[in-house]
Amino acid sequence: MGAAVELDAGGRKVRLSSPDKVYFPERGFTKLDLAQYYLTVGDGILRALRDRPTTLQRYPEGVDGESFYQKRAPKNLPDWIPTGRIAFPSGRTADEICPTEVAAVIWAAQYGTFTFHPWPVRRDDTDHPDELRIDLDPQPGTDYHDAVRAAHELKQVLADFGGLHGWPKTSGGRGLHVFVPVEPRWTFTEVRRAAIACGRELERRMPDGVTTAWWKEERGSRIFVDFNQTARDRTIASAYSVRPRPNAPVSAPLRWDELDDAVPEDFDLATMPERYARLGDVHADMDDRRHRLDALLELADRDEHDRGLGDLPYPPEYPKMPGEPKRVQPSRARHDDEDDGPGDS
């Protein structure tokens, strides 16, 4: 696998063992290629991860090998990488790494980390998100270009409700993510409620193109606004993260005026360094302004009081939440009702 090398990451030396180990056989990319990529986009990925509890998606044997999500900081964590304590829906807690320098990213790459999944909080306050994250997820029969159309309308929805400004990026697959920096004053439950309200408004404006239906059988060929990506312990791949697919795509930050012409295949471990050298981090100013969610939460109240639209189901592993509807697939619920038959009088 070749002798170990030392990489200079912002003035800190990080040892990389087996640098020639192939991680992406289809493209021939090695562990060293992965680490050097993260050095190239270092300021950008650090902007996305800084001080955030971060889950590591690791592929120690490469993209074709077994993988796992590492939520808890390992015992061999260097003392220069801080941690933050997060609480899961179950009530259990864990200390996760919170990168504060590029060297932490390279250290994680040494252990086969492809994708970084930061929480939408900072380590000094892990109960109040400072990002509203909207996940536009193409369903069967739709593609990236359908997600782009939804994103353009989403941009207007955000502007109409509080003058919010979103920052788009590719998911590294067919979808799009739009992040909105917000003041860290609302709970996970409130931020999720704002995401649902935003999704429902987008659905009203694009009924044939967008859905907030949690159950797949109800989504049809529409873009799903995955509101549960804002639930506690749900995370989204960071900007610049390499995704575990044979061609080594990356989650690429974009400007709004690039959406129509860009395609996810444009951005991978080989092409992103050239783009970054030419443009830098196009989301570098993302944290300069933080927004309020009052208008979206007021919309959520109107949806509930005037339209009878309350909460939506949480993921199955979550404890039952106050006001949450039954977690029963609609077709099964209808079948159960039919089996019950009319009551005896």
List the helices and strands and how they pair.
Blueprint lengths: L4 E5 L2 E5 L5 E3 L4 E2 H10 L1 H8 L4 E5 L9 E3 L12 E5 L5 E5 L4 H9 L2 E6 L12 E8 L5 H17 L6 E4 L5 E6 L6 H18 L4 E2 L11 E3 L46 H8 L14 H14 L22 H11 L5
Parallel strand pairs: 13-14
Antiparallel strand pairs: 1-2, 3-4, 5-6, 5-9, 7-8, 10-12, 10-14, 11-12
Helix pairs in contact: 1-3, 4-5, 5-7
Describe this structure in words.
With 345 residues, the protein is an alpha+beta fold. Helix content is 28%, strand content 18%. It contains 8 helices and 14 strands. The protein has helices at 31-40, 42-49, 102-110, 144-160, 188-205, 272-279, 294-307, 330-340; strands spanning 5-9, 12-16, 22-24, 29-30, 54-58, 68-70, 83-87, 93-97, 113-118, 131-138, 167-170, 176-181, 210-211, 223-225. The protein has a 5-stranded mixed sheet. Helix 1 packs antiparallel against helix 3, helix 4 (144-160) crosses helix 5 (188-205) and helix 5 (188-205) crosses helix 7 (294-307). It is globular.
